[in-house]
Structures
1.
Amino acid sequence: MVKKKLVLSAMAVLATLSLAACSNKSSSSSSSTAPTGASVKLSESYDNTAAVSQAANKGTLKVAEANNSPFQGITDPALASNAEDTDVFAPGGGDNLFNVDKNYKIVNGGLANLKLDRANNTATITLRKNAKWSNGMPVTAKDVEYPYEVIGNKNTTSQQFSSDFNDIQGMAAYHAGKAKTISGFTYPNGQNGRTTVIHFAHVTPSMQYSGNSFMWAAVEPYEYVKNVPIAKLAASTQVRKNPIFTGPYKLNKLVEGESTTWVPNPYYYGKKPQIKHISINVVSSNNIDKAVQSKKYDFVTGGLEGTDYNELKGLKNYHMIGSPALSYDYFGFNLGYFDTKTGENVMDPKAKMANKNLREAMLYALNLDQVAKKFGYGMTWRANTLIPPVFKQYYNASEKGFPLNIKKANQLLDKAGYKKQGKWRVQPNGKPLTIYFGAMTGTSAQAAEYQDYLQQWHKIGLNVQLVGGKTMEMNSFYSTLQAPKQNKIDVWAGAWSVSSEPTPTQIYGKDATFNMGHFVSAKNTQLMNEMNSNKAWNQSYRIKAFKQWQTYMNQQAAVGPDSFSYAWAPVNKRVKGYNINPANNEFWRNLSLTCPHVQ
C-alpha cells in the first residue's frame, strides 16, 4: 500500500515500496481501536556461516531496484528528493558524515566526529585525517559547510530547507538573499582544514541523532562543484554524469534512468570493500518476482509489496530480511500554495479541500484495515498517525486514526452542507463538486487499490476522479505536487521515507518546500517547535510534544495516515554480511559472496 517515496534526508534509512490491491468488500464500520502492527516478524540480518569465496568476490553482486519509473539520476543528497536515487547510488555511501548506533544516535568513527556544546550553542564537526573523495581530493571543512549553502540558497532546486535551519546564525539572512555567506560557520584551521564549527541560536535534543532537521549529515565536494551556479547544480555533469563519493565504492558506469555499476573506491577511509563489482538495475514491479525467482539478483532494494512477499517467502535459497520501516503512506490534500517571494506556504481558505469535514469524511470512507489484512500479507497495517511506530518513544499508539466509518463520513458531509443532488454531492454554495485524485502508475494490484478508493468515495456521494482519467507516471506526479502552486491534484496518495530523527518540520513546517499540501497553522508551528525547545532536553516533555502533535494533525485531517509497513528484501544465500541494523554503518563494505553465481 505504499506509494513511491520522497526521501527526506541524507541520513534517512530507506524503506521499501509496498503496494497492495484493495478489497471490494463493503462495511459501514470497523474497529475503532488503533492498528496493532505487522503479523510477520523478520530478522534484520542473515547469519551466513559459509566461507567467503575470493573467486566469487571478483565477480558481481547483482541488485535489483524495484521501481516503475526511471530514476532521476541526482547523486547529490542535498538535491535528491526521490528514494530511488538514494537507492541506486547507495554504494557510494551517501557522503554521510557520521556513524550511528542502533538507535540512530551519532557516535564517533565515521567520516567525521561530532561534539555538541550546549553552553556555547555550537556543534563542532571534525573530519578524520584520511577523509578523501573518490577522485583523491581531500574532504575539507568547507565541504561540511557547502551543502548548507546549496540547501539554503534562494535559487536552489533543493527541497530540503525548513525553518529549523534558521537556528544557524546567519542562515535566515542567507536564505533571504541578504547575505552571500552563512555567518554561523567558522573554521579554526581554515576552510581547507578538518574542523567546522556551527554556531546555533540554541542546541537541540534532536542534534544528537542522525537525520535531524537542524544539521545536514552529508558533505558536498566544494572544489569539484564551486564553479557551477547552485541553481544549475542538479543538472550539472558533476552531479549527473561524473559524480564523486566518499563511501566504499565509486561509480563505474551510469546508464541514465536504468542502472549503476560500482567498483571499490581506492581512497575510502575504511577497510577495503570485499566485492569487486556491484550492479544495480531498475526492475518494474510487474517483473520483479519473476526476476528473483529466476535467480537474476542477489537482493532487492526499493519497492516491494505484500503480494511480492506472498510470492517469494517460500523461495529456495533466499532469506527474507526486514525491520519496521522508517516510512509511512499518507493521503495529502491541496490546501494552498507556496509563496516563492516569502518562502512560506500559504493556506487558501477558498481552496476546494479547505473544509475539514470534507477531508475527514474522505478519510473515514476508506477501508484501510481490510486492505492491509487481505493484501498486505502481514507486511503492512493501517497507520493511525504521522509518526511511524519504529520511533517507539514518540509514536502515539493511543491515536485511532481513521478507521472505516461510512455513517460518520456521511454525517460530516451533511453537517458541512455538501448536500446530494442526484448521484453526487454539491458544494455548500450549490455548485457541482468534482475532486481530482492523484495516484502514481504501478502494478495491477495498486490500480485495483486506487479503484477501491474511488468506489468508497463514490459511496458517500463524492464525485472523485483520477487526474486526467488515469494514473500518473511517478516523476510527473511529483513534479506536479512540487510546483509552488497547482490545481490539478486535490487529493493524492503518497509516501514518505523519513529521517532517522522524527522531528517533522521538513515535511510540515510553514516554510518547508516538502509541505506539498501547504497546511499551515500557528498551533502546528508551536507544537513542532516544542519538540526541540530547551524544555525538550527533558525526555518526558519531548515525548509529550510529539504525541500532542500527532493528535492535533489527526484532528486537522490536512494529511491522513494510510499505512505503515515492514522494510524487507529477499537475500540470496550466497550473500554474506547482510545486516540492516542502523549500527551497521558500513553495509556495502561488509558484504561479501560465498559462491560465484546467484543460487
Note: The longest strand covers residues 563-572.
2.
Amino acid sequence: MKYWIYVVALFLWTPFISYQAKAQVKDEASLKAAIDQIREKTRTPGIAVTIIKEGEPDWLYASGLRNIQDKTSIDSATQFRFASISKMFISLGMLTLVEQGKVSLDDKVKDLLPHFQFSNPWQATHPLRVKHLLNHSTGWDGMHFAEQIPASNRPISIEQALAIHPDSRESRWPPGTRVAYNNTAPLVAAFIIEKLTNTSYEDFIKTHFFEPLSMSSSDYFYSDTYHQNSATLYKGVMPISYVHLNNRAAGGLNSSMSDMAAFLTMLIGDGKINGKQVLSPWVLEQFAIPMGTDATDAGLELTYGLGNTRLRVGEQVFIAHEGSLVGTNSLLAYSPSLNVGYLVVSNSNSPAVSQVHQLLSAYLTQGVPSVKPSTHLANGQPSATLSGMYQNISPISELVGPFISLMPWRLSISAKKVLFKPLFGPPRSLSAKDAQSMLEPKSGKVAMVVLDDPISGQVVQYGTSTFEKVPSILVYVPFIVILLWVFTTLVSVINLPIWLTRKKLGKVYATESIKLRLWALLPLIFMVVMLVSLLMIKSSVTPEILAGQLSLSSGLMFIASIFWAASTLWSVKVAYQGIKPSSLSISHLVAYVLISMNLIIVLWGMVNGYVGLMLWR
C-alpha cells in the first residue's frame, strides 16, 4: 500500500522500476556483510533476506532485531507484514478458478456482482472486467484516507470494507485503456472469489496455498502465533501498533521467511514443491504474462501483470511485487527462466529494502549472459512527429495528479535513437522495434508503445504510465510562474524588516505602500500552515487517521486553504485600489508581480480542488 503523502517520491516516480547496484558482492560472506552495512547505515532495526535457487538449499539471512526494546533477533520463524505482496495470492487464486472453469478473466464485474456499487461511464463500450481488477486498469482513484481508517478493533469482512467509500470506485478512463496502481480493485477480486467459492477469502487461500505449501505461520489476522513471533514495526524508533486493515486481502498478509520461501520455491518450480503440484504450470504462465490492457495487446512487456509487475534486475526481467505499510517494506522477485527468486523484508520504512534489492540484483545476475535486442525494424521507424513534451495522464491518485502533470517528459525520436527524459532526471534510452513500440535496451523487452486513447487520442505508454503530448507552452508557463513566485516571495520576505523599520522611522509615508506589500505576503503564511499540516500527517504513526477524519491536522489544512485563497483574492483588490502608476517603485512592482503569481496559483488550486480541501472525504 502506498500513501499519496509522499509527494516527492511520486514526483520522482519512474514508469517502470529499474535498479542498479553500486557495488557487487562475489560470495555469501561478502553479501551478508553488505546487508549488515546497509541496515546500519539506514538505521533499520531488522532486515531479513531469503534466496531460492532450484536444486539448492534455501539461503536465509537475518540481520538486526525484531524488537529493539527486548533485543530479540530475527530468525526464520519471525513473522512480518508483507503488505501488497498479498495481491499475488489474489491473482493466483483467481487464475486457479479460471482454470477450473468457474470464471473467466473477460467476465464482466457487473454480471458477477450485480449489486456491487461502482461507476463506469464507458460501461457500454468498455465494461469493467475481472482482468481489469488484477492489472490496475480499472481507472479507479487511489484509496481515500477515510477508507484506510480501521473500521473496528476487530477484522471486518470484505463486503463491509467495500461499503465504506463506494464513491471512490469511479473509472476516470475506460477500463483497460490506462493503468494506475490501485488497492481497491484487488479487494473486489477477492470478493468475487468469495462469491464463486461460497467461502471466506482467507479460508480459500488457506486451502489452496497455505496448507499445500505447509505455510503454518501465515494468515491475515492478529493470531496468537503472530503475537508471539512477529517483528515489531517501527517508524524511526517509534513502535507501530497492529492495525486490522480494511482491505486485508490486498495488503494484510502476515508470514514468516520460511513460509514465504516455500511460496517462492513453488513459483520458480512450475507450481511444484517437494514433488507436490500446488499450482499448474498454466496458472503460473498466465500469471507471468502482462495482459488485459490496450498497451499489453500492443506488445508492452515491462508493465503490470496480473497481481505483479515486471522488474528489470540487471539485464534480466523478474516477476515481482513490492509491499509497504507504515513500519515495513518488502519486495519479492523471481525469474522462472533463471530458476531463482528472492525476498527482502524489514520492520522499518527506511530505504534498506531497495538497497538490498540493488545488491541482490547484481549478485544473482552476475555471469548471466546479457540480452541483445534485435535492431531489425520489421515495420518501420517510429514517426519523428512523436517527438515533443508529454504529461502523465494516469496518476495513481487524483489528489496528486495535478502535481504529477507539472513534471513533464520529453520524447526525442531520431534515426539513431529514442530518448524519453523527465524534465529533471536522467534520460531513458530506448531502441525502436517498429513504428509503434520501443525496446528497453538492456533487457530487450518492449517498454513503450504508441496507442490510440479513447479520450486523448494518440498517447504513449511507458511502463506503467500513460503520457499525452502537450504544447511546450503548457509545460514551461507553470515553471515560469513558480520561478517568478519564488523570486518575488524571497525578495519580499528579505525586504520586509527593512520596509517595517523605514515605516517606523517615518521614511515611508504611504500607508498604502506597506499595506500592499503585506497583503502580497499574507497568503504565504497560510501556505506554510498547509505545509505544516501535511508534515504533521506524514510524520504520524497513523497518517490515515489524521487525514481520514476531522483532526487538528486535516482541519488546519481545510481552514488554511480557504484563508489562502481568500487572502489572495483580497490582495488583488488591495492592489487594484493601491498605488498610482506614477508612484510605482521597484518594490511596488515586486509586490504586484507576487500578487499576480499568487492569484494564478490559487486559481490553479481552485480548479484542482485544493481550496477547501477535505482530506477526510
Note: Residues 1-22 have pLDDT under 50 and may be disordered.
3.
Amino acid sequence: MRLILCAMLTLPGLAAAQDIARLITLDTLVEDDPLAALQEVDDVLRTPEVLGTPPDLRILLDLLQLRAELLEQLGYGMAAGDAWAHVGRTRNFSRAELGLDPVPAYHRAADLYEAQGALGHAQRVLEAAIAAETETGRDGAALYALYERLARIATQDGRLEAAANARAAMEALDGPALESSGEGDANAFVAIDVYYATDRARSGSDVPTEFYTGQRADRLELGIATVSIPDTHVPGVVERPSVWRLDFAPNPTKHVLLQKVEPVDPDSYFGRLQGAVSDVPGRDLFVYIHGYNHSFEYATQRAAQIAHDMGDSAVPVLFSWPSRDTTMGYIADAAVVRLSGRRLADFLEELVARSGAESIHVLAHSMGSRALTDALEIMALRRGAQPGDDPVFGQIMFAAPDVDAQLFAAMARTFRPLAKRLTLYASSTDWALVSSRKLHGSAPRAGLGGDVLVGSDAFDSVDMTSLGEDMLAHNYFSNDSSVLADMVTLFWRDTPPERRCGLQQRGGLASVWVYRKGACPTNDLIGVISNLRHAGMRDPEKVRALVPQLLGEPDRSQLVLSVLESVLK
C-alpha cells in the first residue's frame, strides 16, 4: 500500500518588516519574573521592529492580552481592568480581519472593575460589549446575559433609570432564545469530516471550539471533527465570523466553522475512516500537521479548507499537537513538539496498516515539520528503509519547515525511501522563520528561500517567494491557490518539477526551483484535475476531450490543456 502524507508546517521567510525574537523570549520571562515581563511588554509595545509598521494586529493583541494577564496576576486590579478593556476595544476594531470575540475581554474587565467597586467603569465596558454584540445582528442568549448583568450593576450603583432601560431591553429580547444557525438552509454549506489524532489535553468543555487546550495529554486521542464550509467560500480563505467563540454557532452559510468534535475509540475510528476512504477516487488520504501558534479549532478549519479547495479528492486527516496558540508561545511549542513527533510515528504506522488507503499524502507546516521529520526518521529506522524500497507514502511535503537546514537535509536522506517524492516549499518573506533563525544562532532554517534555500538530490526545493506575504507571511501554502494547484498536480500524477506549471529551474541546480506567480491558471487547473481524479481519467485523449466540456470557454480550455500536455507526458 502507498501513502501520501501532508503535515502542515509554518512557512518561513527572509525580508520581513519585524523581528519577533524578543517577543518569543517573553514567555520564559513571564514564568521567572512577572514584573520584569510587564516592563518588557510595555517596552515592546513601543518598538516598531517587533510590532511592524503598520502594527501586526495579531502580535499587538497577543501583547495586549499578556499585559492584561500580568497586571491581573500582580494584583493591579484597576489597571488590569483598563488593560482588558483595551483588549476588548482592539479585538472589536480588528474583528473583521482576525475574527476574535471582544465580549469575553469586556466581561473580564467588568469583573475586575466590579471587584474594585468601580461600578461606573463596569457599566461602561458592559455597554461596549452590548454594542459589539448588537453589531453581529444576533439578539440571543449572549446579549440577554449582558443586559441582565448591566441591570444588576446599575441597580447596585443607584442608576435606576439605566437599570430599568436594561431590563426593558431584556423583555424586548423575549428571553434568551438562540438564533438559528442556518440548519434550515441545508444547501448553503457542505459539512466535511476531518479525522483527527491529537495529544492535546481536553478542557472539560463540550463546546467544539473549546474542546481541546494547548496543554499536553498523556496519550494520543482519536476522533472526528465536523467542519462546515459555505457555498460562498473563497478558495484559500478560512471565512470566520466577527464573533465566534461563544456557546452558540455562527452562521455556517457564511463562515468556515468547527461544528462538532467527537472522540472515538480506535476500532470505530479506523472502521469509519476505511468507509470514507472507499468513497474517494484513488482511495487517497491527506494528512495535515499544523505549525506553531495554532489552536485545535483553527487547525481543523485549515485541514477542511485545504481538502475542500483541492476538490475533495482525498480524505482529510489532522494531526494536532499541543501548540499554545499565541505568538509568545514559541519556546513552549518547541518544547512539546518533539514528543508529539514520536506519537505521530506510531499514528502514521497505524494509518498505513488500518486506514485502507492506497495513497497517503502528508503536508507539514512550520514547526510541525519537526514532528514530521522525527516521525519519518523513526519509521525509516524501524523499517530499515533503503533506496529502491517500495514507498510507503505518496507525496510528503514540507511547507516552510522550521528545522535547521543542514539537519533537515541529513534527515531527509534517511527517510527519502518512504515516499514517492519529497517536496520543500520555502519563502524569503516570512518573518517567523527569520526570527527563528536568530534564536538558533543564525543557522539557516530549511523553510527560508532565496540565497539560503537548501537543495538536495533527496528532495525538490521550491521557492514560493513570488507569492508575497499574507498577514503573518506564514500561510502562503494554503492561502494562495497557486500552491494548491502544485500540490493537486503532485497528488494526481507525481509530476516532476520540470513538468509542473510555473516552476523554473534556478541557476542550473537540478533540485532547486522558483515559482513564477501568475504563470498558471490555478483555479481552473484545480477544478479540472479534481474532475479528472473523480472520473478516474488518465488517458490523454479522453482528457483532451473532457477539458472543453468542463470549462466551456475556448481560451480557458486551451490554457489548461497547454499545462496538462506537459503533466501527461
Note: The radius of gyration is 25 Å.
4.
Amino acid sequence: MRYLIIFLFFVLNTFGTFAQTNAYTISFENAVHHEANITASFVGVAEDTLSLRMSRTSPGRYALHEFAKNVYNFKATDSKGNSLKITRTTPYEWNVSGHDGTVKITYTLYANRGDGTYSQIDETHAHLNIPATFLYAPSLKDRKIEVDFKTRDDLKWKVATQLPHVNNNTYSAPNLYYFMDSPTELSNHKVREFTVDGQIIKLALHDPGTEEEADQYFEKVKKVVLAEKEVFGELPTFDYGSYTFLACYIPNASGDGMEHKNSTILTSTRTLANGGMDGNIGTVSHEFFHSWNVERIRPKSLEPFNFEEANMSGELWFAEGFTSYYTNLILCKAGLITPKKYVEGLTGTFNYVWNSPARQFFNPIEMSYQAPFVDAATSVDPVNRENTFISYYSYGSVLGLALDLSLRESGLNLDDFMKLVWTTYGKSENSYTIENLNKTLNTYAGEDFGNNFFNSFIYKSEMPNYNELFKTVGLSVSQNKEAAYFGAAVSITDDLNGKIRSNTKIGSPAYIAGLDKGDIITAINGEKFPNGIQFHKFIENEFKPNDNLSITFLRDGLERKTEVTLTADPKYTISLIEKNEEAPSKKILKARKEWLKVE
C-alpha cells in the first residue's frame, strides 16, 4: 500500500505539472499612446530560476527581430505578491528567482507597426502578432496557454483569431508553438464566412468601408479560395475546422501579408474604397496558397521553427517563389484579372531576374539562404544587393512559370506536380528537402526531365529558354533595340542635377564608366538636364545605343569626369501575340486556355 501511495502521488504530481496552464491577460487602457499592459501567471514552476524571454523571430519571417526592445516596466512577484529577484544575462531574457512555485509578471508593451511581423496598438485596433507581444517561458513550452483579451468596449472591439474560444474574451492554445502562430486582431471589424467541404473560411475585415464593399470583396476572396482548392484538389484540414483571414486595411497600417497555419495577416494602407478592392486581393491569393505550400508542404530546414535564432532555408525559391508564381495566375484562373493583364504583368519580374548580374554569384538555393539578411531585416552599413541578390520570391516565380510551361509541352502541368508534392509531403505534414522535390519531379515527369530541371536551374543558375516556352502559349518577348540604356537609377534634383540612387549594375554602361551610388551628375556633354523630364526618358529621347556621353559629376564634393558608352536597353516586353496582330493557332489557343483556365 505504501508503494502504491507513492506511485499515485508521483503520477498525480506529474500529471498536474503537465496539466498546468500559463495564463495571460492583456489590456489597452493607454491605447492612444500605443501601450498594452500585460500580465502572466506561471504556476507549478519546478526550477529555481524561471527564464522568461521575448522571441527574436516570428513564424513566416526568417530574419531576427528584437521584439524585447519594446518591453519595459517589467515586474515579478510570487503567489503572495512578494517581489522576486530579476537578473538579465541577454537583452531578450529576464531570469526570475526566489519564487514559491508561482511566478507572476507584469510589463508594458509599446507597439506601433501594423503588419505581419510586429504589433500595433492605438484607438483603431490592437493588431497583435503574438511573438512581438507576449513574453514566454521556454521551459514551459508544452503547457496549455489561455489569454484573456480585455477589449475596449467603448471602441466596439471584438476578437478575431485562429485560437480556439474558451469563454467571453478568453482564448486558448495547446502549446507555445500554436500560440506563437496565432495572430489576433481586436477591432470593430466586419465578419464574413462561408463553408467549403465542412470547413469554415472566415474574413475578419477591419476597413472603414460599407457593408456592401465588404460583401463585394468577400466574393473575390471566395473565388480565390475555390481556385486554389482546385490546384491541390482539396483544402488542408484546418485545426478546429476553420481558417481566418485577418484583413486590416486602414491608413495607419503597413502593407504586408503573413501566413500562419490556420490564418493569415493581411495589412494595407489601401482601404477597399481607395484602391484596395483590386489592389489587396493579390495578397489574399499569395497567403492562402501558403496554407498548403510552406505551412504543410514544409521545408525540413524550418522544422522546428526557432524563436531564438534566425531561420535559414534553401527551399524558399519553392516555398515562397512557386507561391508567387501562383499568386496572379490564380487571380487569372478565378476571373479576377484578364489574361492580358496577367501576361503583361510577368514583364517586371522576368526582367528583374533575367537581367540581374546576381546569378553569377548565387543559385536559387543560395539566394534562399540570404533570407535572414533581407526578409524585413535592417542594417546600417551599405550593401550590394543590386548586384548580388535576386529575391527568392521572384526567382522562384519565373522558374515556376518555366516549369509549368515545360511540363505542358509534354501533356503535364505544374498543378498536378503540386498535387503530388501535397499528397506525398503536405497532407501528412512530413517535411521535405530539396532532394525530395527533385525525386518527386522525377517521379512525375521522368528522371531525365526532373534531373535536367534541377541540375540546370536549381543547383546551377542557368535560365530556361523562355522564348520557346512562351511561343507554346502564344506569348511574344521583344526588346527595343533602338532604346538607349545608361544603367543607373538617377533622380533629378531641384537644381537639375542627377543623383545616382543605388549601386550601378555590374556590366552596365554606368558601371563600366566608374559611376557609383551617391554620385551627382551635373552635366552630360556639357549641358544641364532639361526641366520636367525623368532621367531615363531623357536618355531614351535624346540618345541612341553606342552614343558616347561626356559625364561631369560630383563625388564627395569634388568634380570629376568620365565617358559613358550607351548600349541597347536590355529590358524585355512580354505580351499576347495578338497585340502584335498575330493570330494564334487553335493549338496555341487550346494550350493557353488549359494554362490560364480561360475561354
Note: Residues 211-232 form the longest helix (22 residues).
